[in-house]
Amino acid sequence: MMISCNEAADICTKKQYKEASLFQTMKLRLHILICKSCAQFSVKNSKLTSLCEQAHMKVLNEVEKESMKKALKEKL
Questions:
Q1: Domain that holds residue 44
Q2: How far is Cα 28 from Cα 10, in angstroms, rounded to an integer?
């Protein structure tokens, strides 16, 4: 069964976060064989994931976010 480009993008993003099932990954690979735009998207998505891992990016937790918001409001 062929998937749409939107579904391929969703699966590609899930794959990036290791949330895609084996069946979804297989559907994505089949779609990428046919759709060059999605193949390019997949390559770029993989590069982005790799760069983020290399950068050791840290995400703020909710307490840190609220603290930063409060500090910014106080400066305004």
A1: 5-75
A2: 10
Q: What is the pLDDT of residues 29-69, one digit of tens each?
A: 999 999 999 999 999 999 988 898 888 878 889 999 999 99
Residue 49 CB-density burial (10 A; 0-12 exposed, 13-18 middle, 19+ buried): middle
- What is the domain count for the chain? 1
Gyration radius of the chain over CA positions: 18
Structural contact between residues 38 and 5, judged by C-beta atoms closer than 8 angstroms: yes
What is the C-alpha separation between 42 and 24, in angstroms, rounded?
A: 14
Tokens encoding 29:
């690979």
Give the span between the Cα atoms of 76 and 56, in whole angstroms: 31
